[in-house]
Design brief:
This protein is of the alpha+beta class and about 350 residues long. The chain has twelve helices and ten strands. Strands 1-2-3-5-4 form a five-stranded antiparallel β-sheet. It has a three-stranded antiparallel β-sheet with strand order 6-8-9. Strands 7-10 form a two-stranded antiparallel ribbon. The protein starts with 14 loop residues before the first helix and ends in a 9-residue tail after the last helix.
Length: about 350
Amino acid sequence: MPQNIVVSQPEDLTVAWAQRVVNLHEAATVVTQVKVLSVEVGTTTRIRLALAYQSDSALPRRWFVKLPSLAWRARFITALPQLLETEIRFYQELAKAVPIALPVCLAAQSRWGLGSILVLADIEEHGAQAGDTHDVLSLAQARLVIDGLARFHARFWHKPGSIPHYRWLAGRVRQVEDHLGTVLAVPLMRQGLNRSDGSVPAKLQRGALHYARNRRSAMRFLSARPQTLVHHDCHPGNLFWQHNRAGLLDWQLVRVGEGVSDVAYFLATALAPEQRRLHENALLARYAQQLTAYGITDIAAETLDERYRAHLVYAFEAMVVTLAVGDMMPTDSNLELIRRTATAVDDLDAFAALPI
């Protein structure tokens, strides 16, 4: 049985703990120092560490550790659907097959009754630059992300059998998450709209509450085409940039779904409304062209446009619910992403695209 590396608090990340992680890779390497550089609390507790070794080692000297959130509201929302555990399984079972830049996983462990932990190499040690939730991407950056999403989606398109242990991506945990989302949809939508500080026009608020009351039907419609593996949380804070390629962080919501849902989420959150209006059609066409280049032929431009329009609703809901729960994202960034997604929903009349 592997050594237990699960801890519950940032102060538990000691030299002795780091040594247990290092022993998984280089038993002869001795850890001499562990320094906590930063602690951020959101959907998880994220800790950056600096390490020193007694001698030369190929192991990174900066680590990024994820623990269950220390904020009780965020912890409650993420615990039942086992979001951190899902990300751990992603790195254990799927990451090697994903053709998009990812952090290097040093250790990942879940233990019943004890908790969960994910230890990654800090991407900045290898020259990568992490995104931020308030970033506004350029057209060139948006193209890089669209290209990466097309490559990622094409790898698993219509191939659920190629995804190891596929059932856990759509099984009990996802059902719990969907049920929780439906039960809490109306109160969380009301709470988020009340806190949105005028970021959502009144006409959209009415549509948002109607959507929340009918969320189960809406989700059935949005989930009707489980075609590929999707990230499901493609906002600018979950991106990083390395060697002129875009990478993706935070795989807690990974699932089987419709690829264009990631495109809608990304364009609604990561572009300024003016840029999105100018370029979303071209970027959506680029996504379709890339899929075709990878051998995906069962896509029609008209259908893709309509599905894109409908999936904008989820991006909007996700941002409003994030604000309602609190402690999951910096408030200023959260409000800005609500404004961006609300504008996208309004521009394309996205609520009308749902048969509810």
